[in-house]
């Protein structure tokens, strides 16, 4: 993140992704970007990093849970070809169900899809970042309902 931010001062946490591996499946257990830094491509960068790590480790699938109400996160996952695979009733502490999503990493077509997304994201982060090292300005929020906190 610091390389992308172009900053040299003491780093602070503006985002994280956590995942675990079980046999041939990677599972993303948490992903979040600090509210002040959302909408600038960092969530996508974190997701892409997790996917690339899973590919490096020859995982076949990545799965995750998401709140049905968290449409913004679902949009991010769908962009990376995650599809709904089921529902986990009462998964969250407040009783909300989880939607299960997963993507098959094994196909050639997925690798080329990923290549396109990677190039697009790299261009976006480079092109739009102002010369002072700050990231592109934040896009307007469209009714985000947090599925996680930072
Ligand atoms: C979900 C989250 C990680 C996304 O991070 P982000 O840095 O804001 O996302 P990005 O800027 O990288 O956007 C990536 C994609 O997410 C979706 N997205 C992000 N912000 C959006 C917005 N304001 N409106 C619509 N879609 C949006 C889009 O699909 C976007 O791709 P696009 O730019 O090609 O349209 C972030 O919103 C977050 O931390 N939310 C709270 C925690 C959370 O809900 N975690 C997921 C738990 S399952």
Would you kindly provide a brief summary of this structure?
This protein has 150 residues and is α+β, with helices and mostly antiparallel strands. 33% of the residues lie in helices and 24% in strands. The protein has a five-stranded mixed sheet, with helices on one face.
What can you see in these coordinates?
The protein is an alpha+beta fold. It has a single domain, classed as 3-Layer(aba) Sandwich (Aminopeptidase), CATH 3.40.630.30. It is 33% helix and 24% strand. It contains four helices and five strands, in the order H-E-E-H-E-H-E-E-H. It has a five-stranded mixed β-sheet with strand order 1-2-3-5-4, with helices on one face. A hairpin with a 2-residue loop joins strand 1 and strand 2. The protein is globular. The chain starts with a helix and ends in a 22-residue tail after the last helix. The C terminus is likely disordered. The site of coenzyme A has 24 residues, from strand 2, helix 2 and helix 3.
Question: How many alpha or pi helices?
Answer: 4
Domain count: the total is 1
Q: Based on Cα principal axes, name the global outline.
A: globular
Please identify the structural class as seen in this structure: alpha+beta
List keywords for this structure.
binds coenzyme A; alpha+beta; globular; five-stranded mixed sheet; 5 strands; Aminopeptidase; 150 residues; 4 helices
List the helices and strands and how they pair.
Blueprint: H1 2-5, E1 15-22, E2 25-33, H2 42-56, E3 61-66, H3 71-79, E4 83-88, E5 98-104, H4 108-128
Parallel strand pairs: 2-3
Antiparallel strand pairs: 1-2, 3-5, 4-5
Bound molecules: coenzyme A.
Coenzyme A binds at residues 31-33, 38-44, 66, 70, 72-73, 75-76, 79, 139, 141-142, 144, 146-148.
């Amino acid at each position: 993140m610091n390389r992308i931010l172009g900053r040299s001062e003491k780093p602070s946490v503006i985002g994280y992704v956590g995942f675990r591996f079980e046999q041939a499946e990677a599972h993303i257990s948490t992903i979040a970007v600090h509210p002040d830094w959302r909408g600038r491509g960092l969530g996508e960068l974190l997701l892409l990093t997790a996917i690339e790590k899973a590919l490096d480790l020859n995982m076949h699938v990545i799965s995750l849970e998401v709140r049905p109400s968290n449409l913004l996160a679902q949009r991010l996952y769908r962009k990376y070809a995650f599809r709904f695979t089921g529902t986990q009733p009462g998964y969250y502490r407040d009783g909300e169900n989880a939607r299960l999503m997963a993507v098959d990493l094994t196909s050639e077509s997925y690798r080329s899809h990923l290549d396109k997304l990677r190039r697009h994201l790299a261009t976006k982060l480079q092109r739009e970042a102002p010369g002072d090292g700050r990231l592109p300005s934040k896009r307007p929020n469209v009714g985000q309902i947090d599925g996680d906190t930072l």
